[in-house]
C-alpha cells in the first residue's frame, strides 16, 4: 500500500511538473503573440520648462519623436513652442532666463508661442498616429522624471495615452559610468543647445550607442571600439537628415553641451 501511494505521488508530481512547463511555454508563446510591433513603439519626449518647480514653473517647449522598439525612427517628429504665463516667466531664475534667451526660445514663445491647451491637442493627435489600436506606447527620454512630472500636471490627456512604464536613457548612462567607463567617456557628443527637438534626437542616439556598446559580454568594448561606435551613431543620426535639409538643430562647432 505504501509503495502504491509513493508511486502515485511520483506520477502526480511528474504530471504537475510537465504541465507547469507546458503552461509556462504556452504563456510565453501567448505573450509573444500579443506583443505586436505597434505595441512595442516608443514615444520619445523632451520638454523645456521655465524652471523645475511644478507648482510655479510651466512648459515652454515640447518635442516628440516616435520610434519602434529597435530605435528605428518612424517620423521626423513634432516640436511645439508654448507661451508660458507672465507669472511663470517672472519666476524664472537668471540661469534659466539666459539659457532660453541664448537658445532663441524666449523670442519664439513671444512671437509664435501656442496656448498650452492647443499644444496638448496637437501633440495628442500626433501621438495617436503611432499608437496601437488597443494599449499604450511607452514614454522614453533622458532623465524622464522631471519631464514626466510636468507632463502629468500640464498635459494629462497626453499622458493618458502613454504606458505607466518608462524607458530612461540616464539609467544606462549611470550604469556605463560605473561598469563600462570607456563606453561612458566616449559616448556621442551633444550640441543640442537646450532645445527640445535636438535634445530628444540626441537621447535616441545615446540609447542606440549604449545598445551597441553595452549589451555585450563584460568588460565590453575597448576605448577605440567605443569611439568608433559613437562616430557611427552620430553619422547616422536623424540630426544629419535635418542638416541635409538646411535645418540644423545643433551647432557642432560649439562647445559640447555638459551632459548631466
TrEMBL record:
Gene3D superfamilies: Ribonuclease H-like superfamily/Ribonuclease H. It holds the Pfam family RNase_T. SMART domains: EXOIII. It comes from the Bacteria. CDD domains: Orn (cd06135). The keyword Cell division does not apply. GO terms for molecular function: 3'-5'-RNA exonuclease activity; nucleic acid binding. InterPro entries: Oligoribonuclease, Ribonucl_H, RNaseH-like_sf, RNaseH_sf. Residues 41-216 form the Exonuclease domain. PANTHER family: OLIGORIBONUCLEASE, MITOCHONDRIAL. This is Putative oligoribonuclease. The lineage of its organism: Bacteria, Bacillati, Actinomycetota, Actinomycetes, Bifidobacteriales.
